[in-house]
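Weekly sync, protein design subgroup
Attendees: M.S., D.O., the rotation student, P.L. (late)

Item 1: inverse folding check
M.S. brought a backbone from last month's batch and wanted to see whether the design step gives back something sensible before we order anything. D.O. pointed out we never logged the input encoding, so this time it goes straight into the notes. Structure tokens as presented (190 positions):
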């Protein structure tokens, strides 16, 4: 058993609704030769510098998040891809402590550790493979400065904009998002 991180103790004490579930998920993860850290405000279990599994909660469920879950075999069919655009992460979701099936979770954590030890990598889609909203394509063609600044972004930032602009169903919403960003406001600015 690894040494528990006091920051994870505080996280669980503060967590309220999912406290029992978080405690159980943490207990299981602490049995492995992983380091317990607090990342993104949640208990995260790492093998060296590599993230293996994170404990986190939402309004409707709490979950184990496997960082390279796309590479795991899923014989119990419990891994959830949060959205179609999530390429690597997979969750195992819980709505009660009774759903925490320890032997299965232990097998998945062991498998995730083996993926890290083997140095396996998830093959990510290229940025050019993501859908570009027609409204954004038009804006790029009309504004050379915008096109140049978009091209200068990292591939991850480009993907974030492509997803942000292409997600709305209505053209008016897509245009509003593009206009907001043309005024110099970032994706998370209000």
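Designed sequence read out in the meeting:
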């Amino acid at each position: 058993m690894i040494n528990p991180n006091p920051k994870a103790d505080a996280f669980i004490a503060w967590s309220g609704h999912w406290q029992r579930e978080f405690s159980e998920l943490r207990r299981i993860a602490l049995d492995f030769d992983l380091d317990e850290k607090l990342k993104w405000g949640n208990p995260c279990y790492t093998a060296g510098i590599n993230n293996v599994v994170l404990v986190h909660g939402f309004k409707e469920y709490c979950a184990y998040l496997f960082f390279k879950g796309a590479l795991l075999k899923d014989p119990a069919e419990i891994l959830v891809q949060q959205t179609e655009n999530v390429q690597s992460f997979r969750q195992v979701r819980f709505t009660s402590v009774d759903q925490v099936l320890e032997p299965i979770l232990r097998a998945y954590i062991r498998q995730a550790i083996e993926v890290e030890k083997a140095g396996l990598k998830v093959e990510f889609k290229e940025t050019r493979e993501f859908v570009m909203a027609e409204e954004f394509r038009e804006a790029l063609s009309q504004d050379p400065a915008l096109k140049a600044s978009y091209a200068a972004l990292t591939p991850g930032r480009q993907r974030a904009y492509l997803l942000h602009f292409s997600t709305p169903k209505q053209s008016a919403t897509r245009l509003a998002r593009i206009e907001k960003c043309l005024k110099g406001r970032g994706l998370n600015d209000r």
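Discussion: Residues 102-117 form the longest helix (16 residues). The first strand starts at residue 35 and ends at 39.
Action: P.L. to compare against the previous round before Friday.
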